[in-house]
Task: structure prediction
Amino acid sequence: MKKVRLIINGRAQQFIIDPKRVLLDLLREDLKLTGAKQSCDRKGQCGACTVIVNGKAVRSCLTKVSELDGAEVITVEGLGTLQSPHLIQEAFVLSGAIQCGYCTPGMIMATKALLDENPNPSVKEIKKALRHVLCRCTGYKKIIEAVQLAGRFLRKELTPGQVRPDPNGPKIGVNHPRPSAILKACGVAEFSADIKVEGAAELAVVHSSQAHARIKAIHTAVAEKMPGVIGIMTAKDVKGTNRLKFVVADRPVLCDTTVRYIGDPVASVLAETRGQAVAAAQAVEVAYEPLPVIKNPTEGMDKDAIQIHSDQPNLCYSQPQIRGDAETALAQSAFVVETDFSTQMNHQAPLEPETCVSYLEEEDEGEEPTLVVIGRSINIHFHLGMLQGALGYENMRYEEAYTGGQFGIKIDITSEGLAGAAALHFRRPVRYVPSLTESMYLSPKRHPFDMKVRLGADRQGKLTALTMDFVVDNGAYLSAGRAMVFRALYMLSGSYYIPAVKALGKLVYTNNPWGSAARGAGPPQANFALESAMDMLAEKIGMDPLEFRLINSLKPGQPKSTGRVVEQWPFPELVEAIHSHYNRAKKEAENFNRKGGPVRRGVGLGTGAFGISMSGDSANVAVELEPDGGLAVFAAAADPGEGNDSMFIQIAAHLMDLPMSKIRLVTRSTDRTTATGPAAGSRMTYMVGGAMVDAIQKLKSAMAEARATNYDQLKAAGKPSRYMGTKKNQDAAAIIDPATGLGPSFESQVHSIQMAEVEVNTGTGDVKVIKVTTAVDAGPVINPQNLEGQLEGGVDMGIGYALREEYVAGQTKDWITFRFPTIATACEMEHIIRETPRVKGTLGATGVGEMTMVPTAPAVINAIANACGARVRHLPATPDKVLAALGKA
Amino acid sequence: MDQPAESSRPAGADALQDQVRSLAGREIVFDSEGFLVDTLQWTEEVARILAQESGLAVLTDTHWQVIRFLREYYLQNGRAPLNRQLKSGIGMSLLEIESLFPGGLKLGARRLAGLPNPKTCG
Result:
């Protein structure tokens, strides 16, 4: 032990401490200063734990307390408070630089250290100072802008009051700060691991080392006797079905007879400390009998392949889509491109680990206690039902904590089953904080697609037909896998009118990590193939790619590939809007390339027509006029960072003509909210916002009928103060013709065209994205910063998907091996925003969150081809693949 | 027009789609577990037919008391009541309520009352 004196946030304190202890653990565990976050298993990769020590930004997870005697430490909590925030905190809020908020304290502290030394830094200096802090949500653009704004505040060129929109002014189309942003900026928004749970025991999990094997025995005797161990759980201790049923009941909470991928949970250990639990978990020995491993869909579909689930064929879902006679159309086409594409397995990469807290809450005497699960679900009512069945316990509540990013990963649940089962079995409050590697094991991945494509056009350049056969590696468990196939099919023809289509999507169980939703969920994969083929076909025809896209745009009155005729299609206007930017970029590339040398510049396009609101979709929201004249909004509407809080509050304040401070959101608990479907599919504004508008209209009608202007008058007239609003898709049922795949699909579309400008080093294969310009039409914009934030984060994610990121089971274990995009790789971005009101939109608006990355990968890949002729068909376009495409491998 | 090869379509894949049934003179949409997709399509006649299909020949006053409580609660709150709310609302124990309906509370009572399953995509 060693005695260390520190001044922490202005208060002198002394600690007698294990010399190996790091500052992050002292802050979070001993002092309960949970503003500093932990994401990367204390490897110094994420910077979410950044604090200031003696005026310098340091990663507290790498900083040993024993080396800090006499040091002055400032954490985000010491910078400012909710009542009196620091100017940097205000700048981050006002710049829209805060989405999920998990990286925010680290970003803010790195900014403080920079601006203390250099009050007016350049973008290059900002990038250097913030280079150790990762962000998955923002694409870093608004973070750089926040640092610049903070500099202006600190230099007294500007005050926050001059930037902050008038809260009493217009509510729609204005950058009113998100209500949650200041909580995140001050480090007081509590993520799951920040919640203080008295007497909580810590959980660790034994994961399968085998991809496919029978469990012969689990030896726990040694582990049970280790210090601090409370007990060990295996499948037999789970009292319910032990199956987390998303669509089919195939995924166990704890594996009973068989493990189906490396990482499958086999046993869990509860101990007094996390270290003790992890040590004991490592001492649990599992005896396996290996089974044949299905490594890919081809092996899975082999007639002699072992069946991974006894009650499901390996080819667990397939769906054709057939409209017109594509074969004849292709045979008669003047130009045809025929090739294949593939996309990689990828991790959605939220910064926050898959943390969960669970405990039993006592009820009145004689009542069964309530099992409370606190986690990051984006569909708390649905997931509650899954947990009730799996754990065999009905009296439960799910609460959504603040969520450190999700990007589709929380469409399904992981740690919740393990923590809930342990809380029930051991009757102890349980905290489960998996490591980053373990979080990667536990969580679903973006599905890899293999696609065979033929795309034809006539002599005038009009598309004639598309065929696409794609095979999707489902991994070990189904989860939302079927949705990847039908969503890809529903958006198959992208922005275009294609007279004849023949497609077949197949979903196959393998012993790889299981797939589920990931931003876009299916269409990003299929659209990469379509948009790459569009450029290849334009080249074959000898037509400019922008012109080619414009002449093939779908028009109102024409059908998508599903056969559904569209009534609005504001895509050609986006093509027109980006035209001058395209000409500028082409000219600049031409001038650049005239210089010669190995680095070549190129310009590439990608488009997206992203569907929102599936057939059969519905949402419901309750509103309640409160005695003080405020309005409470009840809906299980998760906000993992996209800004749903802004959307609800700005729309409600606008419609009720109330100050935004009078709108109260009740969204996080299954006990108090409506079950309104997942915060997924970019449906929140269109569906859930629409249901809230309906509820408010019902309230206002009742008030008008009663001639009431306030709560008392409404009640005096005998009217209720609470109203339920709904929004339903025009198609009540999600039913397509199984033979043709034709039928209803998405009700609304968000449209975009993106242009990537890249530089390719033809000597090394390295690709640098210089700029991405996005023209987008999502309808009237409720909060411009939130829309831009989605665009920027999505573009950054799309570039990572195009060039770097890949989840390789067994090799990808942290943010370095994942190749997490950093502020160093962040590119310039420009947006062109059009606002065509949608007929059925919420105040005319549709959604935007997922569309934003759908066109990015093909735009980047097309730009690489434009720069140097290298056509990369298999993502990601790593330098070796670029060189191979150049014939230099 | 081309047709997909029969062998490419696994048996049972369509069982996970919504289903439309003609009940009580109306086209009613059910999810793959037999729950109404739209609670407003529910009528007492629909409840009677679903009850008969589940082996309940007659819905007694007590059954109707549970069904009406569930519906009123759902229409007001957008979700099923908590068990303790159901117990106090009906004045019966949970076991008693469950034993009234084949399939218990969720697969029995809630389904007959036309409460939709929480939605997801998949």
